[in-house]
Amino acid sequence: MSRWKAPRTISVAALLVAASVPISANVTADVAHAAPPGTRAGGPVNPGFDTGDLTGWTVTEGTAFGPAAVTTTDTYWGGPFHHRGSHHLWGFAAAGDDATGTLTSSTFAAPSRISFLVGGGWDPERLYVALVRDSDGRTLLKQTGPEDEAYVRILWDTSAWLGQAVHLEVVDRKTGGWGHLNLDDVRTGDAAVRDDNGLTFRTLGQANQPTATRDFTADPLRPQFHYTPYQGWINDPNGVVQWRGRHHLFSQYHPDSPLWGPMHWAHAEGPDAVHWRELPVALAPPPRATPTDISGIFSGSAVDDGGTLTVAYTKFTDTAAHPGATPETVAVATSTDGVAFTPGTEVITQAPPGSSAGFRDPKVFRDPLDGRWKMVVGSGDGGRGKVQLYASDDLRSWTYSGVLTEGDGTTGAMWECPDLFPLDGKWVLLYSTNEGGRSLQRYAVGAYDGGRFTAERHGVLDGGGDVYAAQSYRDDAGRRLMTAWMSDWNVKEPTRVGGWAGAQSLHRELFLSPDGRLGQRPVAAADSLAQGRPVTVTGKTVKGGWRLGRGDAARVKAVLDLGGTTADTVTLRLKASAAEATVLRYEKSTGTLALDTTGAGYGTRATYTTHVRPGADGTLALDVFVDRSSVEVFTSDGAALTARVYPRYRESDAVEFTAEGGRLLLRSASLTPLGSAVLPD
C-alpha cells in the first residue's frame, strides 16, 4: 500500500559525522577554561531568538533565514510547535520551502554539552544544524530535522572540544517540500541536560546514529519488544505466516531514509511470534529509471504451498517514470529456504473494472469451502471501498470471481490490506481505511459463501490511534494471530532524528466475544518477555494517587473491583513524571475507557476511546504493555487501545493509579519488567 510521495533517496551513512561521541549517563562536567579570544562562555548570543530578531546571528548566504524567519507563531497546520519562550526560528516563514541559505551564530567556547530544539524537514545532506570549529571550519556534529514542524530536543556530548572556539550553523540547501529547518532554545552545560523543572532530557540525535554493532538499546525511544528497523522506515506488516515451525514477519521497508520511499520487503523470523531475528531483505524494487522513480514492492501475503514459501504482492510501477505502464499488478515469488526469493512473476496484469481508487495488497488463503486458493485485493470506486476476489488452483493462474463486498461510502473510498478468514464459526474481514483524515483499522463479522461476504456486524479493531494494515494468519496451534503497523498515515515520528521510523504491534490472538465482537488478546508467548522481579499487590485501596512502580519497558496488569470502587473515574498514569504522562482513564458510569496522549510528550496529542464490559464478577481486567515509545492496552472483554508516545524526559517511567471523588479497589495489580525481543543475527 502507499499513499505518500517519496522523498529523495538519502543514504543513512550520511547521518554519520566525523567525530560522533556517544552520550552516556555520566558526561564530563564543564570546568573552568579560559575562553579563546573573541569567544564568549555560556553559548551563543540570543540562543532562543527571544529578542524578536536575528541579534547574535548572521545570514551568511541565501534568503532562507531572513528577519521574517523569527516568529511568535505557535501553531501550524498539524498542531503546536512546542517552542520555548516568546520567539523561535521558523525556516519556512521568511521565504518558503524553495529558499536556501545559511545562518551562523556568534562564536562561543564549546561546553561539555549542547542541546537545542529542531524542527522542519529531514535531509542530513542538505538540511541540518551543525557545530563548527572556528579554527579550521570543520563540522564536528550535525543534525537534521524530524520531517515535522513540531520541535524535538537534540542533546550532544561536546566534551571532546571543551573550551575550543565554535559556532552553530543552520544550513538549508534543500528546495521543494519540507525544504526548511526550525531552531529554538539552544542550551549549554548542565542546562542542556536538565529542563527548568529539574527533569532530565532523553538523549536524542547524536547517540542514536547507526553503528557497526547495531545497538538497539542506545535510542531511548526505540521499542525493546516490538519489531523496528535498525535504520530506515517501515509501515505495513506483510507475509505473516508460520512456515516450517518458524514465524515469519515481512514489512514494507525503505532502507535509505526514515521516510516513505521505494518499497522493499524487510524480513524477520523467530520461534514464537514475539522474538525476532533479522534476515536479508526479501524483495527489492528494480533500479530507478529516474532519480524520482518511486516504483516498489507494495503489500502482500505469504502461504505455505507444499513446503515452498510463496508470497503474493503488489508490484507498483511509477507511471511518471515509466509512461504507459500499469501502476498496480499482482506478482508472486517463492523461496525454498525461507531467505532467498525467486524474482517475482506477474500473475494479474490488470485491475478489474471498478477499481479507480486502486488495486493492491493481495491476501491469499486456502478456501475451506472448495479447497481452492483464493485471493482478496483492496480496491475502491466512486467513493466506496471494496474488496475484489480471485480464485486459483496453482497460485499462478488466477480467475476473477467478482466483488467480494463493498462499502456504502461511509467507510472510506479505498479499502486497503483486506484479510478474510474463518473464526469461531463465522467469517471475519479486516480492512484499513482513511475516513475524514483519520486512518482506521476496521473489521466485519459475517458469512461467506465462496464468492460473496455478507457482513452482520461492523467494528473498529483497535480504538487507539496507531493500528493500521493489520494482517493475520493461522499458526500451527490453530490460533488466529494478527499484527499491525503501530502507526498511521497521519504519522508523527520524532524517532526520525535517529534515522529510523515505524514499529509493528505485538502479535495478538483474535477471537469472537460472546456478543459477536472481534476481540484480541496478547499472544501467550509475550509472557516470555518477562525479565526481573515483578512488583505485585493484592487488595489495594487507592484514595487520591498511588505509585505501583517504574518501568520503561514493562507489563502492567490490574484487576479493578468495580463493586468496591466508589470513584466514578479512575486512571492509570503510564510513562509518568511531574511533567508528562500517558493517561488511561475509565468511567464506571459510561463504561468508557480512554487513552489520553495530550500530555504524553512528543508525537500526536489526542484522546482515543473504546467501550468495555465488566466481567460477570463485577471486575475489569487490564493488561497493558508499555514500551519505550508505545502503549498497548488490552481488556478482559477483548477491546484494545494502542498509541505511539514519545516521552521527553528520562524520569517519565512511573506507573501510577489515581481515583477521583472516591476510592479505587484493586483486587490485584502487578508491574513486570520486560526485556528485548531482538534475537542475534
The CATH topology of the largest domain, please? Tachylectin-2, Chain A
CATH architectural name of the largest domain: 5 Propeller
Give the integer mean of the pLDDT values: 93
CATH class group of the largest domain: Mainly Beta
Separate helix tally: 2
Secondary-structure class: mainly beta
**Which percent bin holds the helix content?**
under 10%
CATH superfamily of the largest domain: Glycosyl hydrolase domain, family 43
Q: What's the shape? A: globular
User: What is the number of E strands?
Assistant: 44
Kindly provide the radius of gyration, computed on alpha-carbon positions and rounded to a whole number of angstroms. Answer: 26 Å
- As a percent range, the share of strand residues is over 45%
Query: The biggest beta sheet, please?
Result: 10 strands, antiparallel
Total domains, how many?
3
Low-confidence stretches: 2-28
Distance between the termini: 28 Å
Short recap of the structure:
The protein has 681 residues and is mostly beta strands. It has two helices and 44 strands. The strands form nine sheets. Strands 35, 36, 37, 38, 39, 40, 41, 42, 43 and 44 form a ten-stranded antiparallel beta sheet that branches. Strands 1, 6, 7, 9, 10 and 12 form a six-stranded antiparallel beta sheet that branches. A five-stranded antiparallel beta sheet has the order 2-5-13-8-11.
Plain-language structure description:
With 681 residues, the protein is an all-beta fold. The chain has 3 domains: 192 residues, Galactose-binding domain-like (Jelly Rolls, Sandwich), CATH 2.60.120; 295 residues, Tachylectin-2, Chain A (5 Propeller), CATH 2.115.10; 144 residues, Jelly Rolls (Sandwich). The chain has 2 helices and 44 strands. Strands 35, 36, 37, 38, 39, 40, 41, 42, 43 and 44 form a 10-stranded antiparallel beta sheet that branches. Strands 1, 6, 7, 9, 10 and 12 form a 6-stranded antiparallel beta sheet that branches. A hairpin with a 2-residue loop joins strand 26 and strand 27. The longest helix is centred in the first third of the chain and has 5 residues. The N terminus is likely disordered.
